[in-house]
Input
Amino acid sequence: MHSGETSPVVQTTHGKVQGTLLKGIYDDEFYAFDGIPYAVPPLGTLRFKEPHDLKPWSGIKDCSQPLNKCLQVSSLTDLVEGSEDCLYLNISVKKLIGDPMPIMVYIHGGAFKGGDSSRRAWSPDYFMKENVVYISIGHRLGPLGFLSFKDPSLEIPGNAGLKDIILGLKWIKANAANFNGDPDRITIFGHSSGSSLVQLLLASPQTEGLFHKAILMAGFSMELDRLPNMEYRLAKHLGYEGENIDSQVLEYLLKADPHLLVSSNFFTPLEKNHGISMAFRPCKEGYSTPNAVLLAEPIELHRNTWSNRIPIILGANTNEGLMNVVDLKTDPKVLLTLQEYPERVIPSHLKNICDPIQKREMGVKMLEYFCQAHGDQLNLDHFDAITDMFTHNFFHNLYRLIQSRLAYGQAPTYFYRFDFDSPDFNFYRIRYHGTEQRGVGHVDELGYIFVLPATFRLDKSRPEFITILRMVSMLVHFAATSDPNSPLTKPLVDWKPVTSESLMALNINEELKFIPHDMPKLMLHDQFLKQSGVPLF
Output
């Protein structure tokens, strides 16, 4: 391996791969190996099945370009994109020789049904300012990744998308040293549904030893909340006329056009009005198999999981609720739905377990509590209060995970709130709400960690640029040492783990501040859970 090589070749456990030398947005050079296969393409009879080990290849595989994202409906164009053949990982590394570096493995978001693991969507240019190996794993999405049948003879207990990631992590552990990475310092991190997947990997007994710390960004759930009969409903929607018999439903879905599989939208208007939108997501597997990931609910698994012994960082953005009020100001139907269906505003777990009357009562109570209004009295003057209510729903899940860590954990839990409200660099708020709306919405923090298609070069004196440097240095320092207080940020703030005495968070905006993070209104959420017989943690 010569330094300055433009097409480096690396030997892996399965064969040789050839990468390419790239230049980041600020001219930092790094090597990229994109589209490395880590499993057999899940095609034909392997559709919906757990992933299979790859046979080694001969010769040199060209890994200079990202390959397909997984088959999905694009959130931008509403068109079907990607391929069923998508079990590839992508590696970026600053230097291939020298001291072994920490490894950071990213799991992308997209409601378990969309998203792209490649640098087309999330380019790691900023990470390449630091000594780190960055890896992202493509995994199956939607029904292709999360379909599940109770009949054991079909060998589809569910969570194939999670099993993809675990197989990818095994590949990474085995090949770390070949890419100048340290196999004993692997950090997994994810955003949104990717963060929820990280949480499930933390809860699963299957992943012990595959990673050593984790970062969860804006995606948490103590319950899986998978709705029943999704497979049967999908098949019926596509024209299946038989009974709800697993083997027959599967036979039908194996023959179905994959484009129709991923684009089927079979929720009823009433379900949509109640805010139900995710058909296929991780589930509690109905029977035990050697590779079972989840045989119980996360809330239960978290009580004695191996990962209570590893450090984690978790956090979210100040105005996460903005994602729930897209179009509220521009499309009158959105307000009408909130007026007519108060149950739309309650947390999703309660939507799943309460009866219609309870749900409605809770919705009314929540709207009264946050807006002092419900039904016809609700209007656009309540925009901020409604947003705040959804933000509280979001943070309640995060708080529950923190409580669980405080009760059962034996390792530090670092809590942050991302609070940087940029006029032109919070790309998702701008995309969904235009330039008038201010705040820090869902996904806005990722513009400070990755180069997105919308990213532009910043003047280096801008606080946005300084925030990028701080974010990346904290995350990489945590990956390297288990402590997020990096040489760049330590002089500015001392970020300590949470304790049961007070909930303190690192608030990240133009300045870094360690603050108490109080959300007294979450008392209502606690009350609802208690009333429904659901433990907090």
Notes: The longest helix spans residues 383-408. The mean pLDDT is 96. The domain at 9-268+296-310 is CATH 3.40.50.1820 (Rossmann fold). The two ends are 50 Å apart (CA to CA).
